[in-house]
Write a structure and sequence with these properties.
With 320 residues, the chain is α/β, with parallel strands linked by helices. The chain contains 10 helices and 8 strands. Strands 1, 2, 3, 4, 5, 6, 7 and 8 form an 8-stranded mixed sheet that branches. The chain is globular and about 70 Å long.
């Protein structure tokens, strides 16, 4: 009798596993057919919350069953989509990013400028809102950050490795054939000339000027002292409290404080958050349900193990 119970438990256990696996395959198949062509939207709400996190890149990345890394184009689409959605009254950009690609940052900034013509868009910097991510924040209507968040870093960085000394040490020579004087500028196999450095620096300065001038305009920094303006332009980052002193943000505080302020500032009776996300990949729907599947599987396994343990305990007591 006891052996029959034990066998039944094992059968039930593997039956549940089999059913979950079949469900997993079905979801994968359905998502591959229907999800790839469009963006999944949002839960019902009047406030679009868009999480700008991680490095800003122009290309998205998705590995099997891993969280998707969104591209600047993905973020821009979400912002524009929220701007055009009549149900959405305000857009919140939750930022935790060090910045990244200049082109990617500009794409997000352009989308924010578009959204501002439609409705309010505000930003909260939880831990990190630097470089291109701050550029995005600077274009929103209101910025708040944590007291200790890293903010600013209004600068541009370009770098390259130089292996020329290493090659020379081992007697390896770099021979170049180019169809243009500067075609191999920045090559890691030779030293750059002073002329080349100046040329690249001019291009970096062009990007920096556009970045700084846009921040200057959007944050209305004209009333700052020359000393403060110059400090911002150095590309230095500021802690939240410092950033407030430099007019880079409007207030410091927690995210809950931020929501209360936004609610009052824009006369909203409630902030019902609707988190926007994209699913431009074949596992879009699976990505949404994967955690639920894993939780269900975990709970089922735990329950089965407990039931088996209780049966064994009962058997032991009977034998004793």
């Amino acid at each position: 009798m006891n052996k029959n119970n034990e066998n039944n438990n094992k059968i039930n256990f593997f039956r549940v596993l089999g059913n979950l696996f079949i469900f997993y395959i079905i979801i994968s198949f359905i998502s591959s057919l229907f999800i790839g062509a469009y963006d999944l939207g949002y839960a019902l709400g009047n406030t679009a919350v868009i999480n700008l996190k991680g490095e800003i890149t122009t290309e998205s990345n998705q590995q099997f069953l891993s969280q998707k890394t969104y591209s600047s184009e993905d973020y821009a689409k979400l912002i524009r989509k929220a701007a055009d959605d009549e149900n959405i009254k305000i857009i919140i950009l939750k930022i935790n990013s060090p910045g990244g690609s200049a082109v990617g940052s500009k794409e997000i900034v352009d989308a924010i400028k578009y959204a501002k013509t439609k409705k309010p868009i505000v930003s909260y910097i939880r831990e990190l809102g630097a470089s291109g991510a701050y550029w995005a924040a600077a274009n929103t209507d209101y910025i708040m950050s944590n007291d200790l968040a890293v903010v600013g870093s209004v600068g541009v960085l370009a770098s390259h490795l130089d292996f020329s000394g290493l090659l020379e040490k081992y007697g390896v020579k770099y021979q170049k054939l180019t169809g243009g004087k500067y075609k191999d500028i920045g090559s890691p196999f030779r030293n750059m000339t002073e002329e080349e450095k100046q040329l690249l620096q001019k291009k970096i300065n062009l990007i920096h000027e556009e970045f700084y001038n846009d921040v200057f305009k959007e944050r209305k920094l004209q009333n700052l002292s020359k000393e403060k303006k110059d400090m911002i332009k150095t590309g230095i980052f500021f802690i939240g409290k410092e950033a407030l002193n430099y007019s880079l943000i409007d207030k410091t505080g927690s995210y809950e404080d931020f929501k209360k302020i936004i609610k009052e500032k824009y006369n909203l009776t409630e902030l019902k958050e609707a988190t926007y996300l994209t699913s431009n990949n074949n596992l879009g729907l699976l990505q949404l349900t994967y955690n639920n599947i894993i939780n269900t599987l975990s709970n089922t396994i735990t329950k089965t193990i407990k039931e088996t343990a209780l049966t064994k305990t009962a058997e032991t007591k009977i034998i004793t």
